[in-house]
Amino acid sequence: MLSSPYPTSGPGPAAARPLLSTMQQDASFGELCALLGIQHQIADLSDEHRLPRLRVRNCQRIHLAGQTCDRIFVVNSGILKTSSYVYDKEQVMGFPMRGDLLGIDGLLNRSYHQELVALTNATLIEIPLDTLARLGRTHGEFASAILGVMSHKLARDHALLSMRAGLNTQARMAHFLLDTAARYAAAGYSGSSFNLVMQRAEIGNYLGMAMETVSRTLSELQALEMISINGRTILILDPVALRAMRRSPRRRRLQDGAKRA
């Protein structure tokens, strides 16, 4: 039985845990470290403890905001969405992909602050918190390596806030496309041609722009021959120009508009 798709309002703290499918083949400690990119920091990757591997389907929730946090997750495959809710209004926080560590927002008071939902069929490795603590005790380097992964995530979140506040719409879109391309490449896929599985409204929510602005901005980048669009497929044509554009501040667009006026 699957949980229902997107909520009509922000989920409350009394919400029950969604039912998830556990795969028969568990993940090893070495596989977990490789997925997080920390295998070279661990002296001994041998560990008999096995970690549950979860299979989730498109639109299925993994956890809800306000739900008790007793485990964290690492994405093995697929694309997901994290969201927070303020006064029942959704704010998209990110689109996790392979290798991303999820659920750490719930570690402070053992309650998730964000909702996690799959945008495609996906698999995740589950790390119960008691297992996380045991691995930290038995593998000294693991605890510091995990802190490094968490620090990297915080830096990404801070960069997102700075991007929303300081860049114009074209620059924000260029940043988003280049970041998505790099993450596809890191996962072993093409970094120049990829699908945007998320809805335009979700992208706009994430970047701080209206859905119509998302479509218009993508069309503008295509007219400038920086990208090509075919349905949901994006082809990066000029990454150098995109990298230059993503540094354009908001005031530059305002100044350009004043000059045209």
From TrEMBL:
For this protein, the record's Gene3D superfamilies field holds: Jelly Rolls, Winged helix-like DNA-binding domain superfamily/Winged helix DNA-binding domain
Alphabetical list of CDD domains matching this protein: CAP_ED, HTH_CRP
Q: Which keywords has UniProt assigned to this entry? A: DNA-binding, Transcription, Transcription regulation
Q: Name one GO cellular component term.
A: cytosol
Q: Which residues form the HTH crp-type domain?
A: 167-240
UniProt GO molecular function: DNA binding; DNA-binding transcription factor activity
Pfam families annotated for this entry?
cNMP_binding, HTH_Crp_2
The name on file for this protein is Helix-turn-helix domain-containing protein
Task: Please give the organism.
Answer: Pseudoduganella aquatica
